[in-house]
């Protein structure tokens, strides 16, 4: 007869083996990739490559796997709430049952609780949040706008939506946010239209999030508001990530400023290139 102690030992070994197998099986399924080059579906020549690289390095967005970003898949409301939660450096938050369709124990449970408490997201008239629903362009703009307000950012910039043929399709709740997002160049149009109810795929989502964080900043990083010097005269500009912007110097000469986060940059004048970084 097999002794009870032997059975217990075999059972414990079996449990240990099963746990080891589970860990081995999940070890390779991490979705975190800090380099856009790790994704097979994101190439350096793609228009969205620098934006995916940005949000990946900052760990705001992750891939569907370590090699798949899925740029053409749509972004959901739960995923955006999670992104904003990460941008805010994952504040310590206890889950609260605020929406009947946001249970405890999901990847978005705490982010949705925090974002709703912080005033970034709201639910629908039926009381639900709709975590699995694809987010629309005007919803994304609205959430980013609310977050910018919470960060104390000046949201007075306003674009003229009447320049778009579908401006009348913007929902009342999103009008102010869409005007700001357009004026701040976070939303620049979709084939000449605003397409406010259009779905946001992950490539477009990464683009808007990258533009937002580089314009507004985060809870711990200042916004990209820099003071530059050219010929010992001061020029102030707001520059988007890896974009070149043209500004006017005090004496009406144009200078080009290229800005990139945490990189040494310099002022390039119309006729000469400044090599003395103390002037930058």
Number of strands: 5
Strand content: 5-15%
Major β-sheet profile: 3 strands, antiparallel
- The parts where pLDDT drops under 50 for at least 5 residues are 1-30, 219-280
The H/E string reads: HHHHHHHEEEEE
Question: What strand order characterises the main sheet?
Answer: 3-4-5
- Measured between the Cα atoms of the first and last residue, the distance is 84 Å
Number of helices: 7
- Secondary structure class reads alpha+beta
Instruction: Assign an overall shape.
Output: globular
- Helix % is 25-40%
Radius of gyration: 24 Å
Mean pLDDT, nearest integer?
Answer: 75
- Seen as an oligomer or otherwise, the chain set is single chain
Concise structural overview:
The protein is of the alpha+beta class.
SSE order and pairing:
Layout: H1 4-27, H2 49-57, H3 77-87, H4 109-118, H5 137-150, H6 175-183, H7 202-216, E1 225-230, E2 233-238, E3 244-248, E4 254-258, E5 267-269
Antiparallel strand pairs: 1-2, 3-4, 4-5
Describe this structure in words.
- There is one protein chain.
- This protein has helices at 4-27, 49-57, 77-87, 109-118, 137-150, 175-183, 202-216; strands at residues 225-230, 233-238, 244-248, 254-258, 267-269.
- It has 280 residues and is an alpha+beta fold.
- Strands 3-4-5 form a three-stranded antiparallel beta sheet, with no helix packed on it. A two-stranded antiparallel ribbon has the order 1-2.
- Helix 3 packs across helix 4.
- The longest helix is centred in the N-terminal third of the chain and has 24 residues, at 4-27.
- The protein starts with a helix and ends in an 11-residue tail after the last strand.
- Residues 1-30 and 219-280 have low confidence and may be disordered.
